[in-house]
Write a structure and sequence with these properties.
single chain, alpha/beta
Length: about 325
């Protein structure tokens, strides 16, 4: 790993980053990739990115990595990771998940979880059908990375299977301990009381599990997966034990949304082909994303679960992104 990190050091990295978009059916896709064109500062909403818009791609290492964003996420909040991967030679595809993105969260939760793996496959198809990128890529080994709900997407594509029944049983047993997950998105005491009653009723009359993921969504082109603070409690133990491709897991020690003990730590404990890729000390759930611009940070400073941790050194985040790039270099390309 040390040799791979040296290979990915800034002096050896491809300096310029291109950015463009594709449109698959009902699926906008942002592409970040190596280019010879000169970068410039580009204002994109509240973010300012150093990219070369719509520049011609240059050949990198011949591999594609798809990033699956978290609940209500976007390509911009994952841009620093996408840029790190592009600087290491990867073409990076970022689909905007339908009904679970920064503009539209009507399908957030299990409904979106069912759709997301297919959208990753659609993103691969779209990139490999594009005449600018297809000649530069070998689709026989594709990587997928996901954060939070996107981490669940990555685990499902790696072979994991989840069920609503598993989630409900978990929350009935750990309602207080894992409140960040079990009550996610609920802002009032009344909403929480209603959800707690629903979990209690379901626990009294458990239903046979209806499983999603695994062979239902498996894409043979995906050869390695990485997940940062992944949703893990909804996955069955047997399916996590059966994952056959290499998977890397990044944890955040102060995550109060998806507690490591029930999510990332559970995945690592059960999955023999999953390897730890480091714990971010002092990091909360959203500290694993690109730092917010000031305008967003100020607005979310007092929103539970959204404020950034004052105890987290964001220099550690960039080192984490380098480790993710090194993992994909090793598993998709091979040691340099």
């Amino acid at each position: 790993m040390a040799a791979l990190l040296a290979f990915l050091s800034p002096e050896r990295a491809i300096a310029q980053t291109g950015m463009t978009t594709l449109q698959a059916p009902n699926l906008p896709i942002t592409l970040v990739y190596p280019t010879a064109a000169k970068e410039s500062a580009q204002a994109m909403g509240p973010f300012t990115l150093q990219v070369a818009p719509n520049a011609a791609p240059t050949r990198g290492n011949g591999r594609l990595v798809v990033l699956s964003h978290g609940t209500g996420g976007s390509a911009l909040s994952d841009h620093d990771l996408a840029r790190t991967l592009a600087n290491a030679g990867f073409v990076v595809a970022q689909p905007e998940h339908q009904g679970d993105n920064w503009q539209d969260q009507q399908r957030s939760g299990p409904e979106s979880w069912k759709l997301r793996p297919g959208e990753v496959s659609k993103a691969i198809d779209a990139v490999m059908a594009d005449p600018r990128f297809a000649p530069l890529l070998d689709a026989s080994k594709v990587g997928v990375h996901g954060m939070s709900a996107g981490g669940g997407t990555a685990l499902a594509l790696a072979g994991g299977q989840w069920s609503v029944n598993q989630m409900v049983a978990h929350c009935a047993a750990h309602l207080v301990d894992d409140a960040g997950f079990c009550f996610y998105g609920l802002r009032t005491a009344a909403e929480r009381q209603q959800r707690a009653a629903e979990y209690a009723r379901a626990a009294v009359t458990p239903q046979p599990p209806v499983l999603f993921g695994g062979a239902q969504v498996r894409d043979a082109r995906i050869a390695a997966a990485a997940a940062t603070v992944p949703l893990g409690a909804a996955f069955t133990a047997d399916s996590l034990k059966g994952i056959a491709i290499p998977v890397a897991i990044v944890e955040a020690s102060a995550d109060q949304v998806l507690l490591p003990a029930f999510h990332s730590g559970r995945v690592l404990a059960l999955c023999s082909n999953c390897k730890p890729l480091g714990v971010l000390p002092g990091a909360g759930h959203l500290d694993t994303l690109s730092p917010w611009p000031d305008s967003i940070a100020q607005r979310l400073a007092n929103v539970p679960g959204f404020a950034r941790s004052p105890n987290f050194d964001h220099k550690l985040l960039m080192a984490s992104y380098q480790r993710i790039a090194a993992f994909f270099q090793q598993t998709l390309v091979g040691a340099p």
